[in-house]
Amino acid sequence: MYTPPPFKPDRAASLAFAEARGFGIACAWDGGKPIASALPFYLTYSADGTPQALFHVARHNPLVKLAGGSPWLLAVTGADAYVSPDWYVSPDQVPTWLYQAVHLTGPVRTLSDDELAVQIDALSAKFEDRLLPKKPWVSGKMTAARLETMKKAIVGLEMMVEEVEGSFKLNQHKSEIDFAAVGNTLALQAEAGARDIAAARGAPAGFRSDTTRNDDASRGRVMTKKKIGILGASGYTGADAVRLLARHPNAEITALTANTHAGKTMSEVFPHFFMLDLPKLVEWEKVDWTRLDAVFCGLPHGTTQEIIAAVLKANPRIKILDMSADFRLRNKDSYAQWYGHEHRALELQDEAVYGLTELYREEVTAARLVACPGCYPTAVLLALVPLAKAKLIDVDDIIIDAKSGVTGAGRGLKQNTLFSEAGEGLSLYSIGSHRHSAEIEQEIGAAAGSAVTVNFTPHLIPMARGEFCTSYVKLNGATPDDLRAELERAYANEPFVYVTKKDVLPQTQNVRGSNYVQIGVVADRIKNRAIVLSTLDNLVKGSAGQAIQNMNLMFGLPETTGLEQIALFP
Asked: Which of 406, 387, 382 is nearest to 397 (CA)?
């Protein structure tokens, strides 16, 4: 007898699915009688993260008079998802796929006339991508008289989504044209096996990831590239974001900012981009943020908060991948203590999700603003958080010896990063006061369930990129083999985290230029202690690569997309 699949789509996956579909059946109840209409909508989020579904209807629609009453139901269906062969009735059964349905429920209010014009433009931008390169229609093109007439003809509505439910029903797989939708839905599932299959599938033959229809255009499926902007493109992290996104199949770089280099081409600032057709660098104030789907921020800490607030004000639906430190700390007092000034966008600090992908995958998927971790914290936390969570180590006795290539200090001119100063030598900096300590303590403390203080000492080593962290830990009755086993269990299904075998040591050259992390464990000569080793590329998994990994999740793409480069060696 057929056994239903054991997993259901989680809240984050359901919201991402509804946002991608953008079309559903709105249903309200009039004295016990259901009233329904098929409507396009777009999903956005309020400042506190509450989902909002926005749509408009003809003024004479019976739904209009029901706004402000009992909650409405918005039913969104479509897109196939994977069914494991283990769930078939028999081995020779015809492959079966699932049909996904998402129900959003909440109160609905009527928008004012001023809000309506903005909502109409947003709907136009979302649903007229198929007309590219023609720009979407905007209400500003209308005369004042026609705009007023339109406002009299339609009513804008906003649903505050209070409940999200996702479900599956059986449906036969129909065509390879659904291949991309299947992969996207797989990537959103909480089940690790489904995500693994999504990562392995890739795009089908004949399916293009740009705005051109494929061979089966009669099905009406179009897949568009996400339009990406990069703030601070003249820095090392911004440049590596360009390098990786330039070959991402679902991304198109359409805006690059660098106020000090405005007017220049990227190849003038970074000559290794000579073969790429990229937009010129401009001041950030001159970018039309309403035309972008996501923005990567590679600005120095302290300069990011107000700029990101301005970007989100211009386009509340845009996805933010912040590679600076400005939104990583959850506690506002902690931020002021470590960075020397009060946070200038506290409402966004509360909203931001800490973007260590392997630890916060579900939260990242549903987020609008992701604070990508620092390079040191990424290496340290991936190595230590599973051990702290499993109570295998004493979190009150952690010593971290960290070493980074010179790019970790940024591209600005500093005496200690000059070749004659940094070359052929090893130097320490920010001893006992490095700001990444706060991130490390925040996340290990969250895993352990108690406040934590670590001994963290960073070093500058004479190479361009790469990072190596050696963490000395005290064991809670465990053995080094127990630590390795726990790390192997934690990362068994992770595409980018690799735990080395016993007696095999991680090395920076094994991950250079890639999004991979190597972690190893060795026994200390001191009884009841172990040494945990971790290495990554500070510009890729430690910054731009992890940001792209998070972007993939936020857009419902397999998270490995555009990131499977093998390390550059020698």
From this structure: 387
